Amino acid sequence: MTRELATDLPVWAAPMAGGPSTVGLVIAAARAGGLGFLAGGYKTPDALAAQLTEVRASGVAYGVNLFAPNPIAIKQLDYLAYARVLQPEADRYGIALGDEPRNTDDDAWNAKLELLLEARVPVVSFTFGLPDADAVRALQTVGSVVAQTVTTPGEAVAAAELGADLLIVQAPAAGGHSATFTPEQVQEAVGLPDLISTVRDVVALPIIAAGGIASSGDSAAAINAGARTVMVGTALLRTHESGASEPHKAALIDPRFGETALTKAFTGRPARGLRNYFIDRYEGSAPLGYPAIHHLTSPLRKAATAANDTTLIHLWAGTGYRAAQAEPAATTLKRLAPS
C-alpha cells in the first residue's frame, strides 16, 4: 500500500459518526473498488474494537476516523442558560438535562489511538483538529496512511507540516460537522473545486475531496480541479448498508425539508443538517461549546428519534441530499464516479 493509497474506484465512503457508518457500509465501499471508513467518534473503545475485528475479518482495505481533541470550553452559566431554554422540549419527553458541562471529554482519545496502533489500521483520518506529531509518526511507523481533514489552505499547510500523507479537503456544502480547526469563525462560502485549487496552490499532498458531491459531474469537477478521489457521505445515508435512523432517511426525501443550514444548536459546533424546527427555534440561543452542548442535547435527540419526531432531530445532510437513494451502497458509489 502506497502513501497515496490509489483505489480502482475514485469514490470513497466518508466516516459518519453516530450510526450511519456501519461495518457493512465500509465493506461494501471496498468491494466496489473504493474505500470506506469506520467512524470512531462517539464510540467507546470496546465498540470500536468490535467493529475493527469484524471489518478486518472481511479482508478488505479500510480506514478509521477519529475526532482529534479540539474542545470549545463553555462557561457553566452559559451552559445552564441554554439548558433552561431547552427544558420545555425536554419536558415533553420527561428528560432532565445535565447541569454540569462536560468540557474535558476527549472521546477516549488515548485508548482509541492505542487501539489503532495495535490494529495497524491501513488508513487513519483525523477531524476537528490536528493530532500531535508523535501520534502521526507512530501510526506511520506501524504502516498506517495518515489523512487529515482540512477546510482551508492554512489548515492544509499545518497538516503538511505535521507530516500527514493525505488531505481530505472538505467544502462547506458537506453534511454533518464541519472539520474546521476554528469553529468560532464563520466559514467562507466556497465551492469544492475552488477550495481544491487554493489548497493545491500551497500544498503538494494528494487530495481527497469532500462536500456536496451529488453527481458524477460533481466528482469530475473535483478531480479536474486536482483531487485524486472524492469522498461522499450524505449520498450514502439511504443506502441498504447505512445505519442512519429511519426518521433521518425519511426526512431526506420529505418535501417538508427544503434546505440545509449550518447550526451549532445541537452540539455547540458548526454542522450542516436539514433545516427544521430545532434549528429555527434555538440557533439564535445556542452557544459554542463542544462537546458539552453535544452531551446536553443528546438525550433529547435520542428520545425524539425514538418517537419519530423530526422537529428535534439532528438531520445531518449536505446540500446535495436529494441525491441520496435507497439502493446498495456500491450502486451509489459507482453512480457518482466521474464518467
Structural write-up:
The chain has helices at residues 23-31, 45-58, 76-92, 109-119, 133-141, 153-162, 192-200, 216-224, 246-251, 277-282, 292-306, 329-335; strands at residues 11-13, 37-39, 63-67, 123-127, 145-150, 166-170, 176-177, 207-210, 229-232, 260-263, 271-274. It folds into 2 domains: 1-70 and 107-240 and 325-339, Aldolase class I (TIM Barrel), CATH 3.20.20.70; 72-105 and 253-316, no CATH class. Strand 8 (207-210), helix 8 (216-224) and strand 9 (229-232) form a beta-alpha-beta unit. It is α/β, with parallel strands linked by helices. The chain is globular. It contains 12 helices and 11 strands. The longest helix has 17 residues, at 76-92.
The whole-angstrom Rg is 19 Å
Shape: globular
Task: State the helical fraction.
Answer: 25-40%
Cross-sheet strand order for the largest sheet: 1-9-8-6-5-4-3-2
Query: Given the helix and strand composition, which structural class is it?
Result: alpha/beta
> What's the CATH topology name of the largest domain?
TIM Barrel
Distance between the termini: 26 Å
Strand residue content:
5-15%
Q: Write down the domain tally.
A: 2
Low-confidence stretches: none
Would you list the SSEs in sequence order as H and E? EHEHEHHEHEHEEHEHEHEEHHH
Query: Can you identify the CATH class of the largest domain?
Result: Alpha Beta
Q: Given the structure, what is the number of helices? A: 12
Q: What's the CATH H-level superfamily name of the largest domain?
A: Aldolase class I
Summarize model confidence as the mean pLDDT.
Answer: 96
- Largest sheet: number of strands, sense, barrel closure: 8 strands, parallel
CATH architecture classification name of the largest domain: Alpha-Beta Barrel
Counting DSSP E segments of at least 2 residues, the number of strands comes to 11
InterPro entries: Aldolase_TIM, NMO
Keywords: Detoxification, Dioxygenase, Flavoprotein, FMN, Monooxygenase, Oxidoreductase
Catalytic activity: 3 propionate 3-nitronate + 3 O2 + H2O = 3 3-oxopropanoate + 2 nitrate + nitrite + H2O2 + 3 H(+)
Family: Belongs to the nitronate monooxygenase family. NMO class I subfamily.
